[in-house]
Amino acid sequence: MNFQERVSRNIRDIGDSLRVLLGPGWLTMLADVDAPSILTAMQSGYYMGLAMVPWLILLIIPLYFIQELTIRAALGSGKGMGTLLKEVYGEKIVAISLIAMLIIDGAAYVSEYAAISAIGLLFGIPVFVSVILILTFHTAIILMGGSYKRVENILLIISAFILVYITAFAVVPVKPQETFDAFLSIFTPSSYINSLYVTLLAANIGAVVMPWMLYYQQSAIVDKGLRREHYTHERFETIMGAIISEVLMIGSLLVGYWLRIKGGVVDGFQSALLSIDKIISPYWFVVAAIGMIAAALLAIFVISLGFAYGLSEYFNWPSGLSKRMCEARGFYAFYVVEVVPAALIIIFMRDLVNLILGIMVFNAIALAIPTYLLISLVSRKDVVGEYAISRARTIVLYVVTTMLVVSGIYAAIMAI
Q: How many CB atoms lie within 10 A of CB 265?
């Protein structure tokens, strides 16, 4: 084997490894860092300094362990979440879960469209044009259905642009004392009677695990055709994605923190980006804008796929990107149609900052239904076989999920 053949083989081996390691888990975690989440992190840094950094680090733990349940459920049963919930708990329970997710998804679409439209205005693109471009791109990708891998590769390319926020660690200087004070603040009782602190904490929790993430990752694993031998790879992909997603959130927080120090403004997508342009650099303005658009686009794709999977499984329709449109009409139809109402709403709405924070807080509450059900499923050997979790881990997950939900309720009460 000559040098060129060895290089080609090594490149193929690396490509094969990436194709295994970068898939449903990675896309789910990167879609989790959507445009509203980035804005929430920036506002956390702007209003509370580094106080949320310790929480963002700690949230890696529940993010991974809750999402890891979808791997066990998918590989242990070979079924998507909608199908599995329906078989075990019946149609009514699944319908309630899907209705809750539909409300969350609708609000999320509005937020993603708001982000892209607001950024488009900074580049002289009218809101109507931005909305049409998003709808066209969203629909065009689905026309490539019939191959799960083909669509996944496009989404992986989009996810790469979100990684630009990692560069914030090189741009924003942080003093050790400020970091120490931030970690100390989580043990300070006065922090939890500060309504802004509690609201931002709940919003960041709501930005970590969202119901559509559970539906998408489990169904996508099945759609991709992953088998039991991929269990370790998928877990690694998920933990890697969980760490990167929270690193990106911290990077976004640092940007907001730096804008506060330098006299910038972070009351919305436009003000944040304009402050970046003025305070950091025009180059970083373009980079941050591209990263935010990519985050919103990826989220729109993954959220709509998650609901299309769940609804199709509920009605026992053929579903999945591995099927052609003529084979899974309902799946593709709902994927295309469900984003349209949000597109129409955004044309007439402008200031959505308070709405976005409210959505994040609501996510922390709405997370309860699908997560409790998923924990219960994965604790049963008759459902997932050898992938069932222990009783101790089941109890811990119930407790952690309850704490996340309570934080959302507490934040909602504090905001009244």
A: 14
Using only C-alpha atoms, the chain has a radius of gyration, in whole angstroms, of 21
Which of 56, 68, 76, 61 minimizes the C-alpha distance to 28?
68
Q: Are 255 and 45 in contact (CB under 8 A)?
A: yes
At position 410, the amino acid (one-letter code) is Y
At 12-38, the pLDDT tens digits run 544 555 555 688 999 999 999 999 899
Q: Scanning the structure block, which residue is given the tokens 């910038």?
A: 264
CA separation for the pair 310, 341 (Å, rounded): 19
The one-letter amino acid at 59: L
Residue-wise pLDDT tens digits, 123-167: 999 988 998 999 899 888 877 767 888 889 999 999 999 999 998
Please give the structure tokens belonging to residue 106.
Answer: 């609708």
Euclidean distance between CA atoms 194 and 307, whole angstroms = 36
- On average, the pLDDT of the chain sits at 86
Tokens 């409790």 — which residue? 372
CA–CA gap between residue 100 and residue 105 (Å, rounded): 9
What span, in angstroms and rounded, lies between the C-alpha atoms of 83 and 219? 9
Contact 397, 239 (CB under 8 A): no
> What SS3 string covers the chain?
CCHHHHHHHHHHHHHHHHHHHCCHHHHHHHHHCCHHHHHHHHHHHHHHCCCCHHHHHHCHHHHHHHHHHHHHHHHHHCCCHHHHHHHHHCHHHHHHHHHHHHHHHHHHHHHHHHHHHHHHHHCCCCHHHHHHHHHHHHHHHHCCCCCHHHHHHHHHHHHHHHHHHHHHHHHCCCCHHHHHHHHHHCCCHHHHHCHHHHHHHHHHHHCCCCHHHHHHHHHHHHHHCCCHHHHHHHHHHHHHHHHHHHHHHHHHHHHHHHHHHCCCCCCCHHHHHHHHHHHCCHHHHHHHHHHHHHHHHHHHHHHHHHHHHHHHHHCCCCCCCCCCCCCCHHHHHHHHHCCHHHHHHHHHCCCCHHHHHHHHHHHHHHCHHHHHHHHHHHCCHHHHHHHCCCHHHHHHHHHHHHHHHHHHHHHHHHHC
- How far apart CA 78 and CA 261 sit, in angstroms, is 51
Q: What sign for the dihedral angle of Cα 322, 325, 326, 328?
A: positive
